[in-house]
Amino acid sequence: MTEIAYRQAVRDALHDEMEADERVVLIGEDVTHGGVFNVTPDLSGRFGEKRVIDTPISELAFTAAAFGAAVRGLRPVVEIMFGDFLGLALDALTNQASKYWYLSNEQSSVPLTVRSAVGGGGSFGPCHSQTPTGWLMGEPGLKLVAPSTPADAYALTRAAIQDPNPVVVFEHKALYARKGELHGNGAATELGRAELRREGSDVTIVAALAMVERALEAAETLGGDGIEADVIDLRSLRPLDADAIGRSVARTRHLVVVEEGPPQGGYAAEVVAAALEAAGPIAARRVTMPDLPIPFAPTLEKAALPDAGTVTAAVRALVGA
Q1: Hey, what's the torsion of the CAs at 35, 33, 114, 182, to 10 degrees?
Q2: pLDDT value at position 185?
Q3: How far apart are CA 98 and CA 164, in angstroms?
Q4: What is the largest CA-CA distance in the chain?
């Protein structure tokens, strides 16, 4: 097993897919120089300017171009520098790529992958710190993945590129420097499967991306008080692993979902709904950000982001009730 940083895991996944399949091309702003978060260094030198392509600053234009390339047989990987800019590419993603399999009467797939850095904690301000998963949660034909570890960053990125239809990969900025081990042979993994990161019997805590770390921290604190938590890392937001959620909540009967996003329209509500449908009446709470833009000031941003303390308090209130 090899320990590498999250950003290196993403880079290695891109490299290995480009080595394995000459149809894979990387498109985005400054990708030949590694990008703003230094995720794609050296790929241009290895694969050349025809497969690692710098673009003008127009997310709609280069995402639409990638859609066309995917329809014509390539397997483009688009880097959208900040997830906040996904709104500029929504027409290509939601009116074209996600619907083309249906519109073509299942005759043409769209093997398009979109990678984007999301999340707060770096004081990038309200227009560069969002985790806009909720913008895409309701779109049929689109898969959404959210790796929280270097191993998953590698395996899920490879799986996204290999998928025959469009996948958006959310990469949390705060995780890029995190180090972890790559397990097994480093192969792709199945999309749509959650991972049980910790076992317990009293409450189920569900999270994704950087919130998985907060959930695990909270679970350790709660364990010292005699409250044992299952911690589920969603890994995939669409499709959602309702079976894994249902199995856990059927045992614990208590659910807390942690989401770095506003309280309305995100994955937290979908997890609660899936749990209720699978396990019947349960006690459930969501831990989210306030219904406000993300502040720029570090102290205000820290107060807005869910942390282990807010998760711990929510669990204690729920289990105590």
Answers
A1: -80
A2: 61
A3: 11
A4: 60
pLDDT tens digits for range 242-293: 999 999 999 999 999 999 999 999 999 999 999 999 999 999 999 999 999 9
Looking at every residue in the chain, the average pLDDT score rounds to 95
Pair 122, 173: CB distance under 8 Å = yes
Provide long-range contacts, Cβ within 8 A and 24+ apart, for 272-278. Answer: 274/240, 274/242, 274/245, 274/246, 275/204, 275/245, 275/246, 275/249, 277/242, 277/246, 278/242, 278/243, 278/245, 278/246, 278/247, 278/249, 278/250
Give me 100's structure tokens.
Answer: 């083309």
Residues with a catalytic annotation lie at 128
Give 229's contacts (C-beta < 8 A, 6+ positions apart): 198, 200, 202, 203, 204, 205, 215, 218, 219, 222, 223, 252, 315
In the structure, what pLDDT confidence band is assigned to residue 2 with cuts at 50, 70 and 90? confident
Distance between CA 130 and CA 119 in Å, rounded? 5
Structure tokens at 238: 């669409």
Query: Looking at residue 203, what is its pLDDT?
Result: 98
**Euclidean distance between CA atoms 308 and 167, whole angstroms:** 30
Question: What does pTM read for this prediction?
Answer: 0.95
pLDDT band at 184 (very low <50, low <70, confident <90, very high): low
Start-to-end C-alpha separation, the chain:
44
